[in-house]
Design brief:
The chain is an alpha+beta fold and about 425 residues long. It is built from 18 helices and 16 strands. The chain has 2 domains: about 240 residues, Bira Bifunctional Protein, Domain 2 (BirA Bifunctional Protein, domain 2); about 90 residues, Anticodon-binding domain (Rossmann fold, 3-Layer(aba) Sandwich). Helices cover about 40% and strands about 20% of the residues. The protein binds adenosine monophosphate.
Length: about 425
């Protein structure tokens, strides 16, 4: 299609969709640094990467997250594809990881699988600071272990990650949501409590409370939250097995020096959670204080058609994390080793070969092809924060040597053109 641009015609700019954002080059460095740190830690603790699709069948999420949750009821980007199949942009990654574990029979190789994945999630929430409609998470999922040791170790991994990024204003809040055995008794108690509060509940909760009273506990509406002050807590209704599981999680956390807060109001907004649930909260973020969250989902593999397999995982919210990491810029800032200021066509012809050869080693290099003066070129080298500038003009070509300027010390050395790439690499190392 040819678009005609007529004189005097106003061309409308096309902007981002609300709640979506660009991560510009100047920010990308810190994202890369965080991801690199995470990958390193995950691999050190025995996790392997799994890459999952962004689109899945809608049923996957409604069956796992739960029909009555805010995510499934109100926040999913769901549409039918050209054949009429209902598909959804993933609002979270756990369901996909479970689907993949089952579909590829990863359990047949080894029921214990430790997986991590990094990527975008989509929820049509009300956008505000720290809350976007496309946001990024790093997920860890562990299949096949029901021992409380792994719950504690997983929280430890999270803490290592934050501390390595210099994020210290954090505390893990933990709770236990019980299991299929103790949940019904808790639900009865909660339902009885909620029946006396119906007037204070929002319309959604009035509707949800009979079918899934737990969802009232994580409703974001203020009047609902206020009415829950003395609501029953799962912790007071745990069966013996869940109780001792939780006691052991706490004991191991203490043993490995992780300070935590027991938060009996922590329920998380998804149906699949069982037993240990946790959130990493920070005082540095204002209203959106949770920077990571997770927990056990011991029934989900079975619910989605796989073998009965316990599992636990977490998600770290990258968008919120980027706002609180406190690192010196030089830790993650992009570095330019050499800027080549080639003056005139003959110099550019010679220097293009050097630039290609340097870039093909581990040296980052930028060559400017414009007709700018040396002053202009040096200005651009400054802007790019080049560590060294290689200066070459007709005079240097004639003398078969070029100048290498250290931009920090302002020292200049002369290097022979013969074997220049090696000379540069030696001089800048
Ligand atoms: P969840 O998947 O709801 O358990 O959330 C895990 C983490 O993802 C949260 O602690 C947040 O850091 C992050 N997160 C969840 N929803 C959003 C959102 N809409 N925008 C930005 N970050 C989010």
């Amino acid at each position: 299609m040819i678009v005609e641009i007529r004189k005097g015609l106003d061309i409308q700019m096309i902007n981002l969709i609300r709640g979506f954002k660009d991560i510009l080059p100047e920010e990308a460095g810190i994202w890369q640094h965080i991801e690199k740190t995470a990958r390193m830690i995950f691999e050190d603790f025995g996790f392997s990467e799994i890459r999952l699709p962004i689109l899945e069948r809608t049923d996957l999420f409604s069956r796992s997250i739960g029909e009555d949750t805010d995510i499934v009821e109100k926040e999913m980007y769901t549409f039918s594809d050209r054949k009429g199949d209902l598909i959804t942009l993933r609002p979270e990654a756990t369901a996909s990881a479970v689907r993949s574990y089952i579909q590829h029979k990863l359990y047949a190789v080894d029921p214990i699988q430790k997986l991590y994945t990094i990527g975008p999630m989509f929820r049509r929430e009300r956008p505000q600071k720290g809350r976007y409609r496309q946001f990024y998470q790093m997920n860890a999922e562990i299949f096949g272990i029901d021992s409380p040791y792994i719950d504690a170790q997983l929280i430890y991994v999270l803490m290592v990650f934050f501390l390595r990024l210099n994020v210290t204003d954090i505390s893990p809040h933990i709770n236990s949501l019980g299991c299929l055995e103790c949940r019904p008794k808790f639900k009865d108690a909660l339902l009885a409590f909620l029946s006396g509060k119906t007037d204070q509940l929002c319309t959604d909760c009035k509707r949800r409370k009979d079918k899934n009273p737990l969802r009232v506990l994580d409703c974001k509406v203020l009047s609902c939250q206020e009415s829950l002050d003395d609501a029953p807590a799962t912790l007071d209704h745990l069966c013996d097995k869940c109780q001792s599981h939780f006691e052991k999680v706490k004991y191991i956390l203490e043993k490995i020096n992780v300070e935590f807060v027991v938060d009996k109001r922590l329920v998380r907004g998804l149906d699949y959670y069982t037993r240990t649930t946790f959130e990493i909260q920070t005082g540095s973020l204002g209203a959106q204080s949770a920077v990571a969250g997770g927990g056990r989902y011991d029934n989900l593999v079975k619910i989605l058609g796989g073998p009965d397999t316990p599992a636990i995982g977490f998600a770290i919210g990258l968008d919120r994390l980027v706002e609180i990491v406190d690192l010196k810029k030089d830790v993650y800032e992009k570095r330019l080793n050499v800027f080549i200021a080639a003056l005139g066509e003959r110099s550019r012809e010679a220097a293009i070969e050097w630039a290609c050869a340097l870039g093909n080693t581990d040296v980052s290099v930028e060559i400017d092809f414009s007709e700018r003066s040396l002053k202009g070129l040096m200005k651009r080298a400054d802007r790019l924060k080049a560590e060294f500038v290689l200066i070459v003009g007709d005079k240097e070509l004639e003398e078969k040597s070029v100048l290498l300027r250290n931009m920090k010390t302002k020292e200049q050395v002369s290097l022979p053109i013969e074997g220049i790439v090696e000379h540069i690499r030696k001089s800048i190392s």
